[in-house]
Every structure is written in C-alpha cells, then in structure tokens.
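Our example pasted here:


***
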Amino acid sequence: MLLMLSEYLSQFHSGFTVFQYLTLRSILGVMTALGIALIVGPTMIRHLSFKQIGQVVRDDGPESHLSKAGTPTMGGALILVAIAVSTLLWADLSNKYIWVVLVVTLGFGIIGFVDDYIKLVRQDPKGLLSRYKYFWQSVVGAGAAVFLFMTVSMPSETQLIIPFFKNVVIPMGAWYMLLTYLVIVGTSNAVNLTDGLDGLAIMPTVMVAAALGLFSYLTGHVEFARYLSIPYIPGAGELTIFCAAMVGAGLGFLWFNTYPAQVFMGDIGALALGAALGTVAVLVRQELVLLIMGGVFVMETLSVVVQVGSYKLRGKRVFLMAPIHHHYELKGWPEPRIIVRFWIITVFLVLVGLASLKIR
C-alpha cells in the first residue's frame, strides 16, 4: 500500500524512491509490527481478562502449571493483526506470494480461533474436534498447494532442493502438491505442540522466520541466487517483508509472553505461525532447511508420536509426559531453564540451516 504511494510521490520528489528498496521496507516492516504489538498488546490483554478468556489447565499436567489457570489466552490474534497490517503496508500487493502466505496464515488463524473459542468461551475442553480441525487445515493447505502448482511459471518452483549438495535437485512434478500440503499442515501442528511454556514457541518462530527472510531475499535476487547456487524465483524477495513482520510481531508478543506470561497465544497464534513458516519455506524451496532450523518443533512432534506409539504398542510410556518439554518439567527442571535451552538449540540449528547456503 505505502509502496504504491511512494511510487506515485517519487514523480514529484526522488527522495521517495528510497521506500522501494526491499531492505528498508523490511526494516520498517519489523518496526511497524513490533510497534503495533507493543501498543495494542496491553489493551488486548485487558479485554481478554475482562471477558474472562483464560487458560484452562489440564488436571494431569505438571503442578507448576496450576498457577497459569486464568491467564488471558488467544493473544495470537495480536500477532496476526500486527503481521497483516505491517505486510499490507510495506509489501508489494501485486505479488502473488504475499497473498498466498497471508491467506494461508489467516486461514489457519481462523481455525485456531474457532478451536480456542469453543474451549475458552463455550467451556468445552475438547475444543474443535480433531477430525474437523484437520479437515479444515487440509482444505486450506491443499488449496494453497493446488493454486501454487497451477500457477507455476518455471521448473525451479517445483524442485526439491537438497541442502549441502550443490546443484542436487529433485523434480517433484505433481508430487509438489503433496509436499506443500504436508509441510504447511505439519509445521502448523508442530508449532502448536511446542506452544506449552511461556515463550517456548514464539522465540524459535521468530528466529526461523528471520532466517527464512534471508532465504527469501537471496532467492528473489538473481545475482545472489546464482552466486549461492540456489533457485532464483522472481518475486520471492517480497516474502522478506512478511518474514520481517513475523519477527516484529513475534518480538512484540514475547514482551507480554515471556516468563511469567501475561498472555498466551493459543491455537489462533500457534497454528497460524506454523502454517506461515511452512508456506514461506515452500515458496523459497527450502523445505528441508526448515526441517533443520525448526528442529525444536520436530523434536516436540516426534516425542508425541513416540509416546503415543509406544503406549499403544507396548503399554509403556517413553517420556514422563509428552510433548517433551513437559518431560523435563516433571524431571524437576525449572520452566525458564527449559525455555532458554530450547532457544539455544534453535539458535544452533538456524545457524546450521544458514550454513547450507555456502557449504555445498
């Protein structure tokens, strides 16, 4: 929106052309989303508290979580508002990738909102039944996959890139749609499983989003893409704005979500942010790098799969409780220790993912 305005004003003063630079708009995107989150956050928390939309704590969970009961939830709406407004202000709205990632993010946010609303407002602990939740996730994820496949303009958009191996790509063909669906839906649910401690999910999300923003910038720049031997995808650079907005909104939310949390994001935030990460990774052809950088999300998901599988097959549990962050809680680790250590692990994994740009 402001990009179009700057293009118009540049006819009268050349100084306005500075707003056409992707790097400046990315910085402004971070600042805008951060500012919105910090300004709107206190009002939203007061509103959620007034409406008594608070966290419901499981009876079989760690005892330390009992004190969290009643903490305002559905704060993820704050993140989505900040991301959407910042992206619409600073991104090129003629870019199809921007609209794809916005629609997917908001679509999953609506699914999360319905789930949170049923749990917290209607006081139904089951929330949105799993089969309905996965159905609508599949509708949005598959819809995005089909649209992207039908609008492909060059072979590189459907190739699977193998990190750390130069010029090793796998043409996916129609299988691209299945891969896209799995990455979007899988990442969405992985982030949702991770969102169990104060700040545990949001900071890894911010770090991975920042890294994907760099990948987006390089993928959309013909010279950098050629130098680094990564696919050049025209228009992908605009996703840097969206990733920057995620970083700003995430940091703004962390201001209120850090231990002890004043607000929780709920499914409305976790499902949407995970889907956003998955969508950006697909668009810049870095699905496997996302698997590396989002290792904490993968670990949390696998812990649930292993726990459920072991209990069904052997009648025994592998962990004291799943997802795995609860296992460490029950082992006596203080919550801040678990959170910060998982953050440190994410820093390391993000650096490994970024190293794939040069180690080939």
